[in-house]
Amino acid sequence: MRTRLACTLLVAFFVAMGAALAAGAQDADTLYTCTAEDETRALDIGVTVCDAAPTDGLTQRMEADNLQLRSGALITEVTPGGLGQTAGLAAGDVIYRVGGVDVADNVMATARLSLIKSDTDTVVNFLRRGRPYRVKLRQE
C-alpha cells in the first residue's frame, strides 16, 4: 500500500515538473506576439485574434530551423467547443490565408473568416511553431 502511494506521489511530482518545464520552454520559444495586447477581436468561429508580430526568437531561429515568417492574425484564445477548437486551431497559431486570400492582420482575417458558409469548406492556412498547416472550416 505504501509503495503504491509513493509511486503515485512520485508520478504526480514528475507530471507537475514536466508541465512546468514545458510551460517555461514554450515561453522561451514564443515566435509571435500581439502588436498591441488591447487590440484583440473575438470571432464567431470561437477564437480571439490580434495582429501578429514576429519575436526576436523567430528571427534568430528562422534560417537554422527553416521556420516561416508571415504577417497575419495571432490566435490568443480558443473557445472550448467552438468551430476553431473543433478544427484543431490553438493559441499561438498565426492565420495567414483564408479561402486562398492572404490576410495581413486581424481585421482582414476577421473579414475573411466571417464569409465561412455552411454549404462549403473554407481552407484556412496557419503557422504553428513557424511551420505551415491548413484546415478546412465549415460553419455549423
User: Which class of the largest domain in CATH terms?
Assistant: Mainly Beta
Number of strands: 8
Average pLDDT taken over every residue:
84
Structural class: alpha+beta
What's the layout of helices and strands?
Blueprint: H1 2-28, E1 32-34, E2 41-42, E3 47-54, H2 56-65, E4 73-78, H3 83-87, E5 94-98, E6 101-102, H4 106-113, E7 122-128, E8 131-137
Antiparallel strand pairs: 1-3, 2-3, 3-4, 4-5, 5-6, 5-7, 7-8
What is the compact description of this entry?
This protein has 4 helices and 8 strands. With 140 residues, it is α+β, with helices and mostly antiparallel strands.
Descriptive labels:
single chain, 140 residues, alpha+beta, 4 helices, 36% helix, globular
Task: Please describe what this structure looks like.
The chain is α+β, with helices and mostly antiparallel strands. The protein has 2 domains: 30 residues; 107 residues, Roll (Pdz3 Domain), CATH 2.30.42.10. The chain is 36% helix and 29% strand. The chain contains 4 helices and 8 strands, in the order αβββαβαββαββ.
